What does this fold into?
Amino acid sequence: MPMPFDEMNGSDGATRRHYCDYHDWLAAQSVETMRNKRTEADLVFRRVGITFAVYGDDAGTERLIPFDVIPRVIPAAEWRLLEAGLRQRVRALNLFCHDVYHEQAIVKAGKIPAEQVFKNSQYRPEMHGVDVPNGIYAHVAGIDIVRANEGEYFVLEDNVRVPSGVSYMLENRNMMMRLFPDLFARHRVAPVAHYPDFLLDNLRSVAPHGVIDPTVVLLTPGMHNSAYFEHAFLAQQMGIELVEGQDLFVLDNAVYMRTTRGPQRVDVIYRRIDDDFLDPLAFRADSSLGVPGLLAVYRAGRVTLANAIGTGVADDKSIYPYVPDMIQFYLNERPLLANVPTFKCREREGLDYTLAHLADLVVKEVHNAGGYGMLVGPAASRAELESFRAKLRENPGNYVAQPTLALSTCPTYVDAGIAPRHIDLRPFVLSGRDVTMVPGGLTRVALREGSLVVNSSQGGGTKDTWVLER
Amino acid sequence: MLSRTADHLFWMARYIERAENTARMLDVNVATLLLPQSTEAAERSWRAMLGISELQPAFDAKYALVSPRDVIDFMVRDPGNTSSIYSCLQAARENARAVRGTLTTEVWETHNDTWLELQKLLAGRLPERDPPRFFEWVKLRSHQSRGVTIGTMLRDEAFHFIRLGTFLERADNTARLLDAKFHGIAPSHTARANATQPGDDQHFDFYYWAAILRSVSAFEIYRKVYRDVITPARVAELLILRPDMPRSLLASLDDVCANLEAVRNDRSPETERRAGLVRAELKYGRIEDILQQGLHAYLNGFLERVNDLGDRISRDFLVPRSVRW
It folds into this structure.
């Protein structure tokens, strides 16, 4: 099996050019210095309270998301290509969302089977015909990118519902600058701290028509949510109120928040709550996280939600294989960023191929996130393969399969020293007036040797991502 | 600001003040334990302390006897006791965590650090090994919270609701402490307590009242203000009526009124009026009249009014108490 592409070291063992400066710097640091820095990072993260509540953990313990001090470096030219590809992809996804809830042209043109869209559990009939400001549905998109084989980039997954992780990107950069100021003197690393400004500007730009000084709020499920730190962080950075469902109420076809000075009108809600929980009168009736009557105000165009309701139809794993078709259909362009080759098990051919090559494939449930419910063929036992085979036969439409990619690795601190570990990248793409993003994104690293699962909820860690300005 | 946010800030402040005052009270009790006294007197003293927060039933349900060790355990580290120092600091930190975004980094980190350090101190059994040192630590952390709040927070509503919580809680706790300390002593002492001259058992009295003064950091202050022997009546006057004594009931109400005024909204004028009334009575009150009424009756009435203020503040600005978890 060929060695995975390593971000720092070429196959000949020589350090890649964009990593040379860093490599020399690291070589000059004593083991003890680096160990002290890593301990300091740990202490600061803990003291500041950048913790993460892991579901299913005893007593709801707070854990740190492990942070690795070795950055993942991307040369400027590569980033420019990525950026163009991301911009193209997110534009297409937004156009798709608009199309699905209006003309449905792409379905009528036969590019995507109708039932994939309309019987998709994430499709929201309530959104049909509803116009949203600027036609933007996915104001924040987290596009997961991996590098594989000889170093080509692939999009692994789109996240356009409630993508998270940007706060770790920002805090990681702060931490690196605090720990290693000399590194930033030696390298010209593109800054990322303006993300909250971009986001706020975006959110304000999609206020309902006619609102002059929009009131933007961030709607959180509350402090027991695993991503709460991020909600609080972003709200503070943007200078907007962090609200929970109970703080809001609907009156006279408008949304208000309860303040110490009485009710205040709300225009834009950056919601970090899933569609299902947004409005007990419209969706899950047992949800105490939402605001009764919110959907009605939204459909009337008197409040903007970011991301829009119903974007899940675009980031479903069963829709993912069609994204290159969307780019072609809406933009008349070839995709700049490729999909990972994907076999749809709902199709006969896809299912046959998957069953035949199960030990070599990664099989995912179309609706799940966070690395749960998936099968990593090469790492699975005979028994696991057999039980998964049965699940596949029983409900093939629930699965898609992809070849196991040898994800790129990046040197990472482990118990025994520094070793290569698999990484991915999640840039955060903002859509509003324009499509913008800050350079880089969140690099996630699978800390267990050989593991391909980078999700923090399953023990992954993160790194700072550097796009070098040249 | 959001009502719920203000509510969290208000209660964050109340809980840390409560933790401090619990530590102060336990400190007094531990100090007076060292005085020669009968076992009954000692037990009465501990019971009175439990009575302050109406915890006697809860304690009795758990322990057969009132022993200092068990009371300290119950009041310091028992998570089942909602008024224990552990529970108070936990609640303070949880309320802070709920509204991190409204706090400066320094304020949040102070509450978080207090909580983390508490775990270490409890694991190392400091409250058992060296109670005074533990209580001192609690007080210091509370001082730090206040200092960092005053030193770093913008003078906006967040600040005022924090201060409102601090001073309302202080008024409440100080009144309870006074009640327990004056009321929880032997009947023979009660008469002396209402006296304006020192009695026969001067030495005991001295250490007893000195301990109470120290618990509110007022021992040196007493000397400065009165330049005379310690009498119960003057202790009461210092802690109830003196505006220049920072932990007196009057000083606390001064701050409650000032902060209420700063956050006034459409609904709060009546609450302001009631607070103003309590404050005016303190400002123009005389200790002789209070003692004539009977300190216990007076303090009970005072506590009712402070409680009423708390309820009204919740209704006017925050999350009404009936809705709170």
In short: Residues 186-190 of chain B have pLDDT under 50 and may be disordered.
